[in-house]
Amino acid sequence: MIRLRGWVRAQPQPSQQSRSCAWCIHFTGRTGGCRREAFHLISPHDLPRMAGACHLALGRPQRAESLLASIGAGSPAESKADAVILGNLALAHIRQHQIDQACAVLAQTINLVARTWSGGSLTLIFQARRELQQWPDQPAVRDVGDRILDLIDPAGRPL
Fold it and tell me: Quick check: helix, strand or coil at residue 57?
């Protein structure tokens, strides 16, 4: 139910066909003969990417990691959306205290952001760096911090 200034309106439920289309994409990677007009706007990576971000927001980093890692394994990682996937995967590793893996994925994210200038990924990089402040003595964390500074100011000019 959606409540707007005293009015209550029933929230539209997805049709059986749209649910089956989502299922087909998520589990088989194929459309299964779906004839929805906007179906071409959904890629096979969209549902697991969104589900992984939701699990991360809900405090389920293990489930988020499994979904996001499965997308990253089959992707060449060259788009802004792929940078967001890598950023969320780094956060999932951090929240499981897997610091070396998190820093490795975060380094990949930084490389991709340097090529694509993904604003959403840049936000995730800064969030991950804030969460990594718990481990300032780890060399990988210091390296990631230096790489972030290089990303922001590649010329290394004094401020």
Answer: helix
